[in-house]
Design a protein that fits this description.
By secondary structure, this protein is an all-alpha fold. It contains four helices and no strands.
Length: 93
């Protein structure tokens, strides 16, 4: 029962990480295509907010993953690789 609950929590976190990744990709696309009327400062601020949320979720997911599997995950296991790539582009542009 406990393992099932942990897996459900992990799935919920993973879904949010995917939605963060999707939003970041939209921001990257907007910056690349210059199709956004929002200032780059606003885009950067939103990217920072999403990055902070992803960091908190990643830390929580890491703890749950270890509790559920006994294995220490990497960023690929947690679905965070794309998030970090997008953040790197948006925040170091």
């Amino acid at each position: 029962m406990r393992k099932r609950r942990l897996n459900l929590l992990l799935d919920e976190i993973h879904c949010r990480i995917i939605s963060i990744d999707d939003e970041l990709l939209t921001l990257v696309k907007a910056v690349n295509e210059s199709t956004v009327n929002t200032s780059f400062a606003c885009i950067r601020r939103r990217a920072e907010q999403l990055g902070n949320e992803a960091g908190v979720l990643g830390a929580r997911a890491r703890k749950l993953y270890i509790a559920a599997t006994g294995v220490v995950p990497d960023n690929q296991d947690l679905g965070l690789v794309g998030v970090f790539e997008s953040l790197d582009f948006l925040l170091h542009e």
